[in-house]
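# nightly structure sweep
# worker-07 picked up a monomer target from the shared queue
# config: single-sequence mode, recycle default, output format = structure tokens
# input follows
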Amino acid sequence: MVRMEVAGLSLDKKTRAPILILKDLAGERMLNIWIGAMEAMAISIFLNQVEVPRPLTHDLMLHSIEELGAQLLGVDIVRVENGTYFAELDVDMGGRRSRIDCRPSDAVALALRAGIPILVSRTVLETTDTATGHSPQPHDPATDGAAQMMRSAQDSQKTLEDSRRVAQVTDPKRDDESLTDLLKKMQPDTKYRM
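# output follows
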């Protein structure tokens, strides 16, 4: 197994699908794995140190593992079949080791949050063309597709919150009675009226 780290995220120029870029610690080998947009966002949130108000799925998973008395020791990308990569979580459950099948993108998102090694099988590296004669471009949040999606979502959330504040300011006399009247006006004329 070869220890690797996240070099960054990119977008496929043709499909615009997110690509997870891993590199070995010496910077000699790289592995590109096409991943889903949500997993890319989860990885990007960690890389860009974005604070979220509530735990996301990978945070929940890691907290659940810990609360159940287990420990995530590492993640391994173990094989590739027909262009699909397979990973396993290495979990210690009170002295009993278990390996759990998962997608590499989820494994990497968990590894980043847990601060544990990301290992890739030598066979996977030999199967894919991973030798590089140059250093990968450093992670740049300005061009990171997942980071751009996150910023867009944050902008949309801010716009929604601003419009809610405006609605409250422009209608300060709204009370239960006027809200009830408004709801009655919105009901359809059917036998199923509320």
